[in-house]
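quick one, three chains, predict together pls
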Amino acid sequence: MKDIVLIVTAVILSIAAAGAIYRIAVGPSLLDRVLASDVLLAILGAALAIDMAVNRHLNNLVLLVALTLIGFVGSVTVARFVADRRGQVNDS
Amino acid sequence: MSRKRISFRAELPLLVWLVVIWGALWRDFSPGNLVFGALIAVVVARIFYLPPVELSGRFNVLRAIPFAVVFLGKVVAASFQVMYPAIFRGPSVTNAVVAVPLRSHSDLMVTATGHVISLIPGSLIVEVDRSTSTLYIHGLNVRDQSDIAKLRKEVQDTEASLIRIMGTRAEVDALQAEGWPAMRGAGS
Amino acid sequence: MTPNATGADAVIDAVTAVLLIVGALMSLGAAIGLLRFPDLMSRMHAATKPQVLGLFLVLAAMGLQMREWWVWPILAVAWIFQLLTVPVSAHMVGRAGYRTKHRHPELLSADELEAVVLRAAGERAAEKAQEADSAMPRNGNGGRNGRNAGADGGPSA
């Protein structure tokens, strides 16, 4: 049971991570890449949580809380930066 | 000191939230730890001064619980509604940007509505106009006028229930005068 | 998970397994959306919404497995932070995307923001034209062609 769940979720998450990485590599624009890296971070968080649930430990719990807490800072920063730079180009 | 004094009552939700986080991060909910956390919360709130969030001072728990349940259901529905066009419609999906005027002009209410809207089926805030308190919402899989009307009604229903939970007295009265749940038209 | 579980343990383990697999499928749904949707805005829908439910399911599975009450507040705090931060980043990315013309107008069935943006841009152009007119009264149609001068003069955020 435990092994089956671990294998199934690992396969699903690997495929999902591959998709996100493909989008990071291909992504036509910077914002697409930021979005895809956000998804990759969420997949990582899901993997941490699944490991904790299946193996019944709480070693990564604080890391998970920190991920949900500050994971959005990166994409907000990049979004702000992109918007600002384009704004200046348009104004000139 | 020119800072505006914050009443203890207005600060209480923030302090309770800080204490919960303190206990959660220490993984220890013993009374001693919670009291120490409360002390630190008061000190932090006093030293690192931020403009207070202007709460309306009322919170209707009886309406909040069904709202939370409905919200959870909508989050579940949202995920599947997004996955369906992702898998079956793919590149041929059609979207729309819809302007939805809100009733309330308080920042708290606009923010809360925006958050809830971002999390429920196929909608996402693109732009906010604070002066007229209008949300510009990007809807996924919105094909024609009837879909747009549905999206607009959904947003205004959400705002109405949020006002019922934690709006000010005046906003609730305005809602009553409108004859809720009959919705205001989409006119500007 | 308990090896060779019986009774209530087996039921809890089965529920946990379902929650974990559905939670993982949510991540997969987000990835499929990222790959298949044609423009940035649709991809944002796929990237933000399934994550919230996916994290909720996985955290619920954790709570079921730990069987200690003090875990639940931590998991609730983690999920609430997710609820608070996901719309913020989605809005910021969406706003930047709209302003930098990442949207594809041919994929929109209606765009009620565009009219507002164009009007604001038009007003700005008209003001510029007026200034130009007052500065150079002889020049009849001075500055009238500033109509498409930057569409980021929309409503202030």
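Chain B touches chain C through 51 residues (CB under 8 Å).
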